[in-house]
Design goal:
With 338 residues, the protein is an alpha/beta fold. It contains 12 helices and 13 strands. Helix 7 (164-182) packs across helix 8 and helix 7 (164-182) packs parallel to helix 9 (211-230).
């Protein structure tokens, strides 16, 4: 890195910073990663939230002919930071609004284009301002909500949700210690086994990130703190949280696991589903009843799944002769898929 910096100084070249976009579900540490990048580079960190912003003047500023005119949030944040080369985070860029006051996503096209932002024009300043030294980082929960031209200017970095085992390590090494310290339990060692951590992860949270898991750790710490104060417990007492204590502190298990059937059954198959908070096991059940050839699909399935069910039935009918199914059978029975 030092040799690269020396070469840059000799040549006098300016490397344009890429515009990064951290895309992922809530609670996966996108904003925290921006802060860590600023800390590692020794630069100031500036963050503005774009959620619900629907006024173009929020980005470009107001002309001074208006009463109460102000510069845009980009220039105002740089002024507050006191430097022209911070790490600038534009949080929740996929939540930008659009109304009669203009389209802020279009105003950001100039800000987030390294070929244009050296001469960014704020209506309040009325002079060009060089933003090329700023490193912009954006965050989004859904990349498809960002307009195409704006998305094209950014390098997308997908941050997936955590697996249960990753959540276990995060809770074990960070969240529990944080909860214990924030509730004044430094002199009362609190510990959970890996099995109990996993019970909390699987039974009480269903998320891609770790925000609800942090709430559960805080709840456990709060219950222990209440016990310490109520019973005037002496310092040094160890609290090893057992399964019975977890259910006492957090209540009955909220999310039951779907188990695979021990034996194969006619009319029942296992399927896998993708959700924003992780994978899910689906039991697909089929039953036939006397009727007139209708197919019924239930279970809040989308169009694609309903079409798949009809396609499967058509395929079975096409090979009916090979598996010895009478053609009249379909006219006398209804098929229910759930």
């Amino acid at each position: 890195v030092r040799s690269l910096k020396k070469k840059r100084r000799k040549k006098g070249d300016i490397i344009k910073s890429p515009i990064l976009c951290f895309n992922g579900p809530p609670g996966t540490g996108k904003t925290s990663m921006g802060k860590s990048i600023a800390k590692s580079m020794g630069r100031k960190f500036v963050r503005i939230s774009l959620g619900g912003v629907g006024d173009e003047a929020e980005i470009r500023g107001h002309r001074r002919t208006y009463i109460g005119a102000l510069p845009g949030r980009i220039i105002a944040s740089l002024k507050k930071a006191g430097t022209n080369n911070p790490i600038f985070m534009l949080d929740e860029i996929d939540k930008l609004g659009r109304d009669f006051r203009g389209d802020p996503s279009s105003a950001l096209l100039e800000v987030l284009d390294p070929e244009q932002n050296f001469s960014f024009n704020d209506h309040y300043l009325e002079v060009d301002f060089d933003l090329s030294n700023v490193m912009f980082i954006t965050t989004a929960n859904r990349i498809d909500k960002i307009p195409g031209p704006l998305r094209d200017r950014m390098e997308i970095i997908n941050i997936p949700g955590y697996t249960p085992h990753e959540k276990l390590q995060i809770a074990k090494k960070y969240l529990l210690k944080k909860a214990v310290n924030s509730h004044g339990l430094q002199n009362y060692p609190v510990s959970l086994t890996d099995k109990m951590f996993m019970k909390v992860v699987r039974g009480y949270t269903k998320e891609a990130g770790v925000r609800n898991l942090e709430r559960m750790m805080n709840t456990i710490a709060r219950k222990i703190a209440t016990d310490v104060v109520t019973n005037d417990v002496e310092q040094g007492k160890k609290y090893k949280v057992s399964e019975k204590m977890v259910e006492k502190y957090l209540g009955p298990v909220i999310f039951e696991q779907t188990n695979i059937e021990a034996e194969s059954q006619v009319g029942l198959v296992n399927g896998l589903a993708w959700t924003s908070v992780g994978g899910e096991l689906l039991n697909i059940e089929v039953v036939t009843v006397p009727g007139n050839g209708k197919i019924q699909v239930t279970g809040k399935l989308g169009d694609v799944m309903q079409e798949s069910a009809r396609a499967a039935l058509s395929w079975v009918r096409s090979i009916g002769d090979n598996i010895e199914i009478d053609h009249d059978w379909y006219n006398k029975h209804d098929i229910h898929i759930h």
